[in-house]
Amino acid sequence: MLNIKNLSVSYGRKVALTVPKLSINKGEIIGVMGKSGSGKSTLVNSCLGLIPFKGQVRIDTNDVGILMQEQHYVDTMTNQKMIEGMLNTRIKRDKKLAELIDFFDFSSQLSLHFKNLSGGQKQRMSLIMVLYQEPELLFLDEMTTGLDFESRQALISQLKIYFKQHQTTVLMVTHYAQEIEALADKLLVIHDGQVKAFDEPQNLFKQYIGYSAFIVDNRTEKSIKVQQPEDEYKVARRLIDNGDDFRRTQSDIELVYTEVMKGQRS
């Protein structure tokens, strides 16, 4: 669905991003993590042809959608009129649109103006208009930044159902590890304009951490790596005897990301 080869983006003399090779298959959801300025949004903009680049970017579909962190619409008309006008249709005569509005629980917001919506409601409205066009490939760039925890969780839960039903291919930039755990098939870590890791989370966990890990006091920097199953009992017994609060994991994305950024491998 998306294939990148020898991608290079420069701003003046500074090389902002290099991607030797990256392939995303149809129906895959890729979660992209990295620090601010690492090259995540540059990757999205390159794929969309919004900035100059060297190399090859091949997208095997013309049905591409994008949703950024912030959306801006006029406030002089209701949300219903805006949706209908931009999509050139009428909700009462369009089953697909009506189903999307119902799916994202947006019916009660149709009579309001965009400025009166919460952050989560604004993103739902944008998603309705993007998904109405049934994109085969969807780019999400920091879509949930600024939303409160409950709004973010509700939106991600809805998207998980939608993506599974429609087999949408997604490249999702986020700094929330929980979103990648909930949605993504693979994790892509970018740092200083370079791809540091790209694989299924469970494979990266084995590569950078080992068999399992015990996270103490819910702090990844206090995690204890376990390389063999038979070593787990000793570690757990010691933590219990010390009265430590801990949890065991074999898939924690935040821990994987932390270890990738350290450059450590088990």
From TrEMBL:
Keywords for this entry?
ATP-binding, Hydrolase, Nucleotide-binding, Transport
Q: CDD domains this protein is in?
A: ABC_DR_subfamily_A (cd03230)
Q: What are the residue boundaries of the ABC transporter domain, all occurrences included?
A: 2-217
Keyword Cell division present in the record's keywords: the answer is: no
Q: Which domain of life is it from?
A: Bacteria
Task: State the top-level EC class.
Answer: hydrolase
Q: Which Gene3D superfamilies match?
A: P-loop containing nucleotide triphosphate hydrolases
Q: Which GO terms describe its molecular function?
A: ATP binding; ATP hydrolysis activity
Q: What is its EC number?
A: 3.6.3.-
Its family remark reads:
Belongs to the ABC transporter superfamily.
Protein name in UniProt: Energy-coupling factor transporter ATP-binding protein EcfA2
**Species, as recorded:** Leuconostoc suionicum
